[in-house]
Automatic annotation (TrEMBL):
This is Transporter. It comes from the Bacteria. The chain crosses the membrane at residues 6-24, 31-60, 66-84, 104-121, 127-143, 150-168, 188-208, 250-270, 276-295, 307-331, 368-388, 400-422, 428-445, 452-469. Keywords: Membrane, Transmembrane, Transmembrane helix. It comes from Paenibacillus roseopurpureus.
């Protein structure tokens, strides 16, 4: 079906170009997204008041769409805080340390533990939960601190966050922008996450072993621990809360069992998307309340609230930059009609879909071109060091290309998500590497340098796999 492009289509496309240009220059994109929303509102309503109101309403729309994701991350972080301060996290991880007997076992063991923990707790809290306990063990058996940081980083901020199969924050963002069900994006991402994870971690380990043998390994250690900007990692000893060893041991068993039961329930009850997230979130709330009451006793009621506040501060700190950007890209799909009424031509399925149809008429696209483009776009959106702030763009462009090609929407969306999070989620951008670097006492710039080749090789191989799958 031929769709006649209107000025609003071209304005949307121009602002996508502006956003990409700013991302390449590592500049913030919030302001340009706000201006883009205003411009689209002005074209849609032809009134100044309508376009100004549209900016605020688009923020409300995006916040409503993202609220479940913001909420689950905030609650998980709040629960993580009480586990760190009571020392339950140390007790939970301690039995695993006896398996880390060689440098190789330490690297892969820390990585797998970090990955599993990050699926349930998200990577930043997971670094604090396990890093302080496992790092001394790893160093004692001969794994350099920088190697431990690489393992935590690649498995946590790379593999776990790029799939995000339990909390489902990343696939929610990309799926919404691409107009797809969350489950389809998650399913399509499985082979890509596996390939990216295996290639990157094996390559990183091989480079590390080679350089250590050749004597060219740089430790990356710094004289004093980094002044941590994320207070999840730098938990002050003064804030530790005393509970008995017996109670610690009991809770260290009960908490993992509860989350394991959640995972079983997801499969048995076929819970996906928001339902699965809600189950994990509700479990985390009850764990937070129970542990806080047991640890703080008479002050427990008030402390539950303070932990929740800390979690919400972290959640909105992470998603504050995401909301204006997501608001702009939601307008590329159904949000435009919801907010401004029926202004697109008959037969239109949203700005992005219309552009995809037009693109298919002009340029003969194929799966290979689409896959390479989505990897590049995903990587560019990750240059701001967030990983999340630009994946809506990746989802929108995936929808555009899939419409032009005629297939592969879920695969392209998942590929853009994987590329964006591996680059910006905390494996290549130095300021995004601070949590893992700080807990290991290494330079984030040296950690980024060590990750660069393995991640680029992984992206290249994963892109080839996506070409086949599209």
């Amino acid at each position: 079906m031929d769709i006649q492009l209107m000025p609003i289509h071209w304005v949307y496309l121009v602002f996508i170009g502006f956003i990409l240009a700013l991302l390449i220059k590592r500049r913030d994109t919030t302001m340009i997204c706000v201006v883009g929303i205003f411009a689209l509102g002005l074209l849609a309503t032809e009134t100044l008041s309508g376009s100004v109101s549209g900016v605020f309403n688009s923020f409300i729309y995006a916040t409503k769409e993202l609220m479940g994701t913001i909420m689950i991350i905030s609650i998980i972080v709040a629960m993580s805080r009480v586990l760190i301060r009571t020392g339950i996290n140390e007790t939970m991880v301690a039995p695993l340390t006896k398996f880390l007997r060689t440098p190789a076992l330490a690297f892969w063991g820390i990585g797998v533990i970090m990955m599993v923990t990050s699926w349930f707790f998200w990577p930043s809290p997971a670094v604090a939960l396990i890093g302080a306990v496992l790092l001394p063990v790893a160093v004692r058996v001969g794994l350099p601190a920088l190697g431990a940081a690489m393992a935590m980083n690649l498995f946590g901020h790379g593999i776990a966050l790029s799939g995000d199969y339990i909390i489902q924050g990343a696939p929610k963002l990309t799926a919404d922008a691409a107009g797809l069900p969350v489950a389809s994006v998650m399913e399509a991402s499985v082979p890509l996450v596996i390939v990216m994870g295996l290639v990157t971690t094996i390559t990183a380990f091989w480079f590390m072993r080679r350089d250590i043998k050749k004597g060219t390994w740089r430790s990356g250690l710094i004289d004093s621990r980094l002044e941590e900007t994320d207070d999840l990692v730098a938990t002050d000893q003064a804030s530790k809360v005393f509970i008995s060893e017996r109670l610690k041991n009991v809770l260290a068993i009960v908490i993992p069992v509860l989350f394991a039961l959640d995972v079983i329930a997801m499969f048995v009850l076929n819970l996906q998307g928001g339902d699965a997230t809600a189950l994990v979130g509700g479990t985390a709330v009850f764990i937070l309340i129970a542990v806080t009451l047991l640890a703080h006793r008479n002050e427990g009621v008030e402390r539950v609230t303070s932990y929740l506040i800390e979690g919400f501060v972290f959640g909105f700190k992470v998603f504050g930059p995401v909301i204006p950007i997501a608001a702009f890209f939601y307008l590329g799909d159904s949000a435009l009609t919801d907010m401004f009424g029926k202004i697109l031509p008959e037969g239109s399925h949203g700005i992005v879909n219309d552009l995809g149809v037009a693109l298919a008429d002009l340029v003969p696209l194929n799966g290979a071109v689409g896959a390479v483009t989505l990897t590049v776009v995903g990587a560019i959106t990750g240059l701001d060091g967030s990983g999340f702030s630009g994946i809506s763009l990746a989802g929108s462009i995936a929808q555009l290309f899939a419409t032009a090609i005629g297939s592969g929407a879920a695969v392209l969306t998942a590929l853009g998500q994987v590329a964006a999070i591996w680059v910006g989620g905390g494996t290549l951008i130095p300021w995004a590497l601070i949590p893992a670097a700080a807990i290991c006492g290494v330079s984030p710039f040296e950690l980024a340098r060590r990750n660069l080749k393995p991640v680029l090789i992984g992206l290249a191989v994963t892109t080839v796999v996506a070409m086949v799958l599209v």
